[in-house]
Input
Amino acid sequence: MIQVQTKLTPCYHSMDVYCVCGIAVRAAGDVFVINRCSGNRNMFAFRSCIDNILEVKKIDEMNYKIYMPTGTYVQTRLRLVYGVNVMEVDIFPSRADIDKSEGLCSKLGSHQLIKRDGNTVPAIFKPDAFSLSWSVDDADNLLEMNDSSVVEMRPMHSSYLLCSCDQKPNGGDPVNEALCSKEKNIICDVFPTKSYQKNTCHAKRRRRSLQERLSYIPNNFVEHKDRKKRSANNDTKVFWTKDQAKAFCINYMNESAGYKACLGVPNVNPENAIADCVADIQLSNSTVWAASSREGLKALCFKELSQNNTFQNTTGNDGASVVNNILSITCPGECNQRGTCRNGTCICDDDYGAADCSINLNDPPIVNGINLDSGGLCDTRHCSEAIVEGDLFLDRTTLTCRMQRFEIPYQGNVKYLETVDVEADHNSISDVICPFPTHRKRRSADPSFISGYKIAMSNNGKLFSQSHLMYILDSTCQNTMNVSGDIKFALKDGYCFINGRCIADGTQDGSNICNICKYKSDLFNWSKQISNPKTRPPWQCLRQCVQNNKNCDSRVSEFVNRNFYVDNGLFSYPTDDEALEMLQETQTTLIERGNLNLTRTSTLSSQHCHTIPRLELCEAAFMLKQSDTSSKEMFFDLQRYLLIQYERSVGKDDWYRKTDFKLNAFEGIKEKPYS
Output
């Protein structure tokens, strides 16, 4: 199913005049909505994008095109009239719509007004019976229906394909081959456009996901009832006769260079535009709608320029392309008399902006909230930017996000930190994206539990809107609470929060297996894991301290990995200073990497003991000399002692009988380095 729905609002004083303020376009399982009606949150969003066959293009912040898979497209032009957000909607059908369309456009090609029940009505000045017959029930209202109903819409049939004729390389005539796919759109446009980002399509799903993981999702939408809207209105009379209205419309149209340039384009009838202009003036007794008829004719002109291949190759007397000549003198809204049209682009006067120069840059954009679909929350699992929603965001390089970072300690108060201005990524007039700036992490005695940004917006980088808060959290272990209407944050049971990360209870530190999360003991620091000799030998903790550490001295790493036995190590160096340096490096590494302290040492040079901190015992060992009988006796006493200790530890009573442990193993002891 392909469908276009519009929502109307009173738009001119107390008269019975209604304008379009919202539109919804559906193609099978895709639904795109623009809703700028009063009392509603402004919405530019894919409410559903199951089939991915709707293509939305942005011409500028005021003009958008929505392409359907048949080649039909809808063009919307946004306006501000007497403080009311309105839009003009043009539907440009394709050959696929002939004799198949219905609704306010009636059956294409029939030239009749056909009601929903199939009966026809005469083409009178106010065909209310025809119009009201096509009112939409609440259950079918694409702008108002709930999210679950939208996502359950029937998608395109799996066997349905969209095809277009292939063309020769570098352009050329179609050949007898077709390219077919489920996502093929037919788009022809002489104007450069930008694709509307579809990331908002998934916002509703993200909100539901957060609702499942968090206890409280706040409503952070702020409505600005006293906001001042800007519009370029041109009321000149209170009552108009038909002749007066026609004379005005003809003169008004001929003042437009773009209008006059389009008069020679095939299938563009200026009489229709003038007739529409006259009808609008007679209905409202106002000239404010005259621009709608003029811009509608220009839109039809551009449609013909895009789709008429023959005319695209036509040149004028000067040899230049007729299409390029028309585009070069045609500007949106004729720049609203606040700028100059140059090569198809408005060069706005000082303090004015937008593609048609209709917005005063001294008035900041209106901000209704940040990440409205998730209540101003940003889950670190899938969030790297802030989506700011409001109104009158202009697509220009001076569109600026002023972002002040803040941190909130656990059960503490907000601490505001540095402020950075970041260029915004314009999505539509109602929503922009602020990418997170990079910043240096600072160590604090009061570590952060929640972080976020206070964000304000500006169109000119000088005058900013009111600020709004966005909180960054990890819903894995962090939770939200409603405390007297204010949002507060807590840690979920079964988790520690260490160095800004969620750690499940019982999880070991990846860089030190001696550290473990014990949330009942310490929520924000690693707890020490007591080794069980039956399951984890002590040397595992020691070795873990030097593994995967690029900054670890290679000598320390080799000593701990190869020369530590249980919890005792042995090494030797040629000089006292080298041995001392090695001992100090090892002690420092073990403390920094695993909070393990080297507390006892034996050395042949006890004079250096006092230079080693944190030692509980430093004792001098002996050096055996071959000619010293007492030393020999001491050696055998030491041998017997070691044998007994080893017997007790491993249970082997015949180890010493199988080992050739002789004194002559120490011959030449003077040439051996000290231990």
Q: What stands out?
A: The longest helix spans residues 629-650. The mean pLDDT is 79.
